[in-house]
Amino acid sequence: MTGTANDFPMHEKADAPDGSKPLLDQVEKGFGFVPNIFKVLAESPAATQAYLSLNDILRNHTAFSAQEQETLLLAISAHNGCDYCVAAHTGAAEGAKLDPQVIEALRHNRPLPDAGLDALARFARTVIQKQGWVDDADIRAFLEAGYTHRHILDTLVALSMKTLSNYVNHMAETPLDDALKPKAVESAG
């Protein structure tokens, strides 16, 4: 076991709490290794399970396409200034074949060249900024961009998932995995 800059333990599978060991096995099967965020999350089997469950729900049960999912996750992570998640979701966005110009704009909180994805990113950022107290104009603009009330609620699933990981990474100062270092940005915020 190693630690982060803030002394959060980073567990290997062998020294992880019993409740986290099967979850780390699942993560390793999916990624081919255990990313540092999961080594930190492993301290709490509940937090690890929550993240994995929210990820499964977002990926398999929301109305968003893979590109829309990555737009949300990258927009939220960049808005929250989470360098770890920006690097991780840059790679995931590339894997989802998101346009490189869209990815670069998301990484730096800039308007997107795709109107629909821009509306999605703007709505997610607005929800964060207003702490959920969006007004009728915010909702109307999102709906007029072609989204539905289901998409509004599904956006909250992505926000829940990223709030958990972004805040863990802020507190723990989770170091980037070697595989993520090429995707790093100087400042995600």
Alpha-beta content class? mainly alpha
- How many distinct domains? 1
List segments where confidence is low: pLDDT < 50 over at least 5 consecutive residues: none
CATH architecture assignment name: Up-down Bundle
The radius of gyration computed from the alpha-carbon positions, rounded to a whole number of angstroms, is: 16 Å
The CATH superfamily title:
AhpD-like
What is the string of SSEs from the N terminus onward? EEHHHHHHHHH
What profile does the largest beta sheet have?
A: 2 strands, antiparallel
> What is the 3D shape?
globular
Give the strand content. Answer: under 5%
Helicity range = 55-70%
The name CATH uses for the topology is AhpD-like
What value does the average pLDDT take? Answer: 95
Summarize the structure.
The protein is an all-alpha fold.
Brief descriptors of the model:
globular; mainly alpha; single chain; 2 strands; 9 helices; AhpD-like; 189 residues; 2% strand
Give structural notes:
This protein is mostly helical. It has a single domain, classed as AhpD-like, CATH 1.20.1290.10. It has 9 helices and 2 strands, in the order E-E-H-H-H-H-H-H-H-H-H. A two-stranded antiparallel sheet has the order 1-2. A hairpin with a 5-residue loop joins strand 1 and strand 2 (9-10). The two termini are 30 Å apart. The model has no long low-confidence stretch (mean pLDDT 95).
Write the layout of secondary structure elements.
Blueprint: E1 2-3, E2 9-10, H1 21-31, H2 36-41, H3 45-61, H4 66-79, H5 83-95, H6 100-107, H7 115-129, H8 136-144, H9 149-172
Antiparallel strand pairs: 1-2
Helix pairs in contact: 3-9, 4-5, 4-6, 4-7, 4-9, 7-8
